[in-house]
## 1
Amino acid sequence: MSTQTSAPTAQPISIHIPHTLRCYATPLHSFLARNPGYHRVVCSAFIFAPPTASQSNLSATDSRLLLVKRSAAEVSFPNLWEIPGGSVAEEDPTILHSLAREVFEETGLRLTRVIRQAGEGIEWTDNRNGKERKWLKLTFEIEVVEIGSSITTVDGGNVERYFESIPVELDPEEHQEYAWATEKEIREFLDEGKGREIGWKELAGQMLKAFEVGRMSKEEAMLEDETMRKY
């Protein structure tokens, strides 16, 4: 578990997008026009270390997922754990550019590849000034420059040093800590309510599914992708 006190100051973006996700390489207004039931869109990221497609010396069972703990000053869900992400902005060129921006602002990690969409999206409604709005949260598994396949050994394969070597930089106005969570830890929270409290149980369920997909062969994962995408 770690903390940081400074936010990133630059935002380089270089994204590889698979053909199956080109529908999200579109501006927010275009997406909402095609999906008129929604008013707002949020995007978030599953960031695994090592990446599921990497050649790291760590095995699939060693993979961990990046979680960030919301600031105690947050009006909504203070002190709860989540994954990096935020609202898709009209000024961003595409939804996936919003994803890259949010990941960088919140963690200092630079998105380089979108692997797959995770789940079908989480929907909810709110009511502001007497007007109901419907939200859609899209989650993607991604890879970042700072966790590339070139990282194969750290201190002779020391697992903890491997995770400590990843340069996560939090925005202290939004998050107070980060952690690399194991599948077992996520499952213990979902089944028994133990450990780090994740803001949404539905999100915790998506996390477990993402761990499962990460263990699949490339061919199996491609088939799974087809069943996981809603759009």
## 2
Amino acid sequence: MHSAVLLPLLLLPFSLAAKKTVKVGDGGKLVFVPDHITAAKGDTIEFTFYPHNHSVAQSTFDKPCQALEKGIFSGFFTPTTEPANQTFTVTVNNTDPIWLYCSTAGHCQGGMAMVVNEPKDKTLKTYQDNSKEATSSSQSEVAGGVISDQSSGSSSSVSSKAAGSSSATAAATGATGSSTAASSASSTSATASPTNAVSKVSAGAGLGALGLLGVLVGGIF
């Protein structure tokens, strides 16, 4: 009887995470829909891609359209149908702002940007205004999220740190189809450090919860 009560309590932190969905290039426009998201730690953001050529890349507020080294990058998606049969999913590790843009030439300058957890003193409108004269850049490799094939349900991942103080778990895949990672003409220097241990910590937390449950149940009986 006690174990039936304890199990939901132990699993509660794993069930509270919310899934957010963002449409990239919906309707053939240079937009993220929605372009403002409020996300809690543990929430996931799933990006779906629409024709013709779009990406999700991360920058800092002060350097719009400039790829953050070791930040989020989905690679380029070039679907011919709506939406692409692959998605890119980012896990939010804290509530710090995350500034995202499309790194296809001219798209960020055209206002194709969004923000996760917008701060009061820095707005997406200001970011978009400052991006008009900026030069776009991309990372050379997919990072900061997981690409999943919706038709087969397969995915693979690698961990990396997202923004200077914002991080996103998991990353890249060699999934075939409409997504490829490529470099852009220019590069940027920014600081961030990889966190390959994030996924191991998450797995350890799950095993720790199950181990605690075993101890509690054993003590009861």
## 3
Amino acid sequence: MPPTNEECLAFWNEQHAKGYDGLRSRLNAIREKWPATANQMAYYDWSSRRADNEMAQAMVPVPREDLVTMIATMNYNRDTDRGRLVNALERAVAPWIPVGSYRNGKIYRIAPGAFGLRADDDDPKTNREVVSDNVLGVNTNVQPTVPYRSRKANFSEVSTKSNESDDSEIGGFVFHQIGTLQYWGDKVENLRSYEDAARGPWLPTEFCVVIRFGRSGTANGVYLIYDFYPRDELGDGERDLRVDNDNWGQLPGDCSGQQFSVAKIANEITELRFGRTFELTHVLDYPIELVRTVKTPEDTIIRATIA
């Protein structure tokens, strides 16, 4: 019996969430799922129609309210939920999300995207299934040597232990990326409506916005994380070099000189809006390590390596 539409859709979302690397991996996964050639051909036919449909839908954004609700209520442990979120964030046209103002007077928003940050070690040594890099982990008790600033006593320079525990979140947490942080580049009085906001100008901050989640898969705070691997816009566009100077981790226009790699800006994404002034809490003022994440036998997600 050929696979049903529901079975094909579940497998499609699972593949997207796992982020299979290349055509060979995808074909192997299909053959493993459906050994019978007839079932494989049925899925190929279904996926071709699905791809054509998604290409057409890529120009139709998910409504902003629906995207915020999805981010706030989904189960981040579930492959299909993450697949739907990535699809919404990575469309050719996707809604930005207002954040609010900071003490520097700047106004901020989130430009949607699921892959703004990269891990320090993109190929961890683990026997567990590695999750796609829209989901990463931060080790807060690891401080890389680059850039050098205010090194913390007794902190490792890199995580070296494979995480075989159930990850109690001591020394770090896991998160899903939802976009990059931008600030309004014109006079504040010229941002009077959503129409003004849609027109811009918006400028980059070098911070990304993420949703922290725990073992239950529920959202547990909105955080900013500094991007230590900026894209080489003047070269080949790669992101191989980590920031190696002390000019990192400052919000544009903040005269206080506060420097941070991680900070919490809200308990829930539904709190974010224009007209709101946010504060930075749970601030880390030193460079941190980002790591890949893995699935556990209990279908939870934990950091691949820890200190």
